[in-house]
Amino acid sequence: MTRHILSRIIALLMFLFCLTGGLSAEIIYDKDFGFSLDIPEGFEMTDSTEDGMSILLTHQNIPVTLAIKIYYKSEYKSSEESLEAALNKLSAEASLDKVKWSGENCAVSTFSMNLDQKYSGWAVGAPVKMESQLVVLCYAPDNIFQQCQFFIISAINSLSIKDEFYNIPGIFTQYAFPNQGKKAVSARIGGKEITSYIDESDVSAADFLTNIEYSILVMYANHPKKIEAWERYYRMIYRDSFGRLADFSSQVHDTLYPLARQQNPENADIAYAQMLLSWVQGFHYKRADKASATDFTSLPAMLCGEGNDCDSRSMLLCVLLKSAGIDSIFLFSPVYSHAIAGAGIKAPGQTFLLKDNGVEYLMGETTANVTWGIIAQEHADRNKWVPVILP
Question: Considering the entire predicted model, what is its pTM?
Answer without folding.
Answer: 0.92
